Amino acid sequence: MALLKATKLSKEFGGLKAVSNFEVTIEKGELIGLIGPNGAGKTTAFNLLTGVYEPTTGEIELDGKSVVGLKPYQITQQGLARTFQNIRLFSELSVLDNVKIAYHFHVKYNILEAVLRMGRYHKEEAEIEKKAIELLEIFQLADKKDEIAKNLPYGDQRRLEIARALAAQPKLLLLDEPAAGMNPQETQELMKMIQWIKKEFNLTILLIEHDMNLVMNVCERIYVLEYGSIIAQGTPNEIKNNPRVIEAYLGEEVESC
Amino acid sequence: MKKNKQMWLSIVACIMVYAAVQALITFDVIGPFWQLNIVLVCINIILAVSLNLINGFTGQFSIGHAGFMAVGAYVSAVLTVKFQFPFIIAILSGASAAGLLGFMIGLPTLRLDGDYLAIATLGLGEIIRITILNIPYVGGASGFMGIPRYTNFTWVFFLTVFTVLFIRNFINSTHGRACISVRENQIAAEAMGVDTTKYKVLAFTIGAAFAGVAGTLFAHYFYIAHPASFTFMKSFDILTIVVLGGLGSISGSITSAILLTFISAALADYPEWRMIIYSLMLIILMIYRPQGLFGNREVSLKFFGKLGGKKRGTTESN
Known about the structure:
The complex is a heterodimer of chains A (257) and B (318). In chain A, 38% of the residues lie in helices and 23% in strands. Chain A contains 10 helices and 10 strands. In chain A, the strands form 2 sheets. Chain A has a 6-stranded mixed sheet, with helices on both faces. A 4-stranded antiparallel sheet of chain A has the order 2-1-4-5, covered by helices on one side. Chain B is an all-alpha fold. Chain B has one domain: ABC transporter involved in vitamin B12 uptake, BtuC, CATH 1.10.3470. Helices cover 74% and strands 0% of the residues of chain B. Chain B contains 13 helices and no strands. The two termini of chain B are 36 Å apart. The C terminus of chain B is likely disordered.
């Protein structure tokens, strides 16, 4: 059974069809890329999948259950976490607290136990702290755990956002342009890291990216979006040679010069 | 017990402070004027810390705190005056009534953001006041008189300690972190699985309930509950304390409540200069410390421990 299945998804803003007939099927353990020219509707598609927008028509199934109409936090609790194109950290908080917040809905102790510092409070808080630090270690941020998130260098902020998304313990991770603003070397490291976390955390990943080098190298399958519709899908090699994709990116060929 | 060491230490420290002040009161070292101000300081701390939970930690700009205080004051006064209930039940009922109102009002209004929420809560405070003004059962415009003086230093002190501990422990838990995440970035908070509406309403309810406690203490100290005590100016006074101390700092709110109440008391002898000096001080502070006295940092025993630790560290390296 597919982990994520979107069928005939569309979103209209007034008269503008931002996404129409969007269809993707992601199997467990896949690493999928979603590409397309600027304004093709990639981020809108992400926002539909994560519940930020409600689709005008269509169906989204996560792990066999429909998630249409659920609030973003409910979808996250169903096992789908995301990062943002323009980084959205809790910028005034420490690196550690950023990650701790993502464990929120896994915590079982209630408000009374928190206020009285009794019951499960100490055990669970210690557990969260330990897990959060382990996660930060993986992302080489453990030594910066007490720094305020907004003071981190750009690349660290990107990694922290991914770490935070992983702390929510998702089945499916959505990355919205993870390499945006990174230099080639940082992108290389990011590529390795994405593949590594996929294996380590047993994840399924869907990523939007403009960096073709990254997409072609790490993704197993690629969907191409243009004007809100999927125009092609296939392995990186198929996509590279697909005339419709080339047309979408470079324009039509002019007959006989 | 060991894990709660810090909390027990603070409780012991509080009891010592209590014993010292209570002794001074019993031996008449502290006269009635300063006793009054000490009670006011405690009530202001309760108000400021509870408003800080809403404004500072959850980032929902509310300026209707005096309204919830009024609800607590009147509900508890009705219970003690008309039905002769014991004080503790009056406090609990005052808190519950204010909390319930906060919950009911919070659900619709917390959909609003920023300025709009501020205006809505400002209006709410006034609606509560005008409503009370028009209920003859509780004295209407002439105020609710004949309230017994149940509030004494013991009550206010321990309820203040309880409020501060409650809100501090709440903030330092996953539930508190969820509130803070709402302030920091609502979209990211949702994406991390935090039910933002729930936590906004929760913070609002808890804040309102403690305002109700403060209102109860207030009415049962001054023998009277009067609508004129709960105007929007009162809300602004509380807001001033919170902003001055630092949005998101409990110790800031406490320091600033003590500071402002005592400055206001010390200037009582110069009524014509009082407001000028008071506002000048605020202006100067806002120019030099726009983030408030403490910003969003906390001063705690741990902080002093760290200082001590560092000092020891340096001597060792020498």
